[in-house]
Every structure is written in C-alpha cells, then in structure tokens.
Specification:
Number of helices: 4
Helix content: 10-25%
Largest sheet: 4 strands, mixed
Radius of gyration: 14 Å
Length: 149
Amino acid sequence: MPITAEYAADIVTWRYSVPYDCYDMTGIAPDFLIDPTSGFYALVDDSGLIGFRPFGPDGRVPGGVYDSSALDTGGGLRPEITGRGLGGEAISTGLAFGGRQFAPPAFRMTIAAFNVRAQRVVQLLGFEAVGRFAASTDGRDYDIFTRPA
C-alpha cells in the first residue's frame, strides 16, 4: 500500500545493527518516502507496518551499472523482526505487487555482499547473481541479482 506520513516517520527511525546499518534510512526525509514518484510502498500485516518496498531507481545502490532491462526493487523489514524467516514472504509479496503494478519483464535486486541471508532468500525465489561492484558511497561490495518477472 502507499506509504502514509505516519509510516514514513516510523521508517526513518529504524536502525539496524552492524553490519546491516548500511540499510538504515537515516537522513531520508519522510516527505520523500510518501512522494508517489519516489517508488516506495508500505508492507503491512494485521499488526501494522512491518516493512517497505521501493520500485525503480530507489531500489539501486550508487556505483552499480543499471539499465532498463529489469525493474529494480529493494526493501527492508522492521529491525526487530529481521532474521525470523519472514524475508521470503515479504519479498514474494513485493514481487507480486510489483508485477501487477508495473508489469516488468524482469526484476533486479542489489544486496550487500556480506548479507548472505538475504542473498539466500532471493536465490530461493529464482534470482541469479549477475554482477558485483563497490558502492560509490561507502566502498562496500554489493551483488546484483535478476530474475524474469
């Protein structure tokens, strides 16, 4: 669903433990997240906001080489629920929504190289690694994965 002002204000306070802190949304203005052109959507369940999914350029990491052959997507779960096996369902839900909303030929995800649990999840969902690069922001290595929609 679209991100509300309340959801956006919550998301920008999320802090992840090291080394996952590269996923913190610090410095992001809540107004940016609620702007429809930003491509961010809220991931909710019966308990409320549990995560977010961006589609388009905001699913990219600075320093990577991207083209129009796939729709970029990323996302995050509320920090206190990470590592509990919810990633597959969260990503699958986002991909189903992205497929209906944007009808892309393929999806692309960029994941920090150290984040083996996220990489394992996307590989189980049919993504294949297609490249690695160092982010221009912090020099960390990131892997790019794609799969047909």
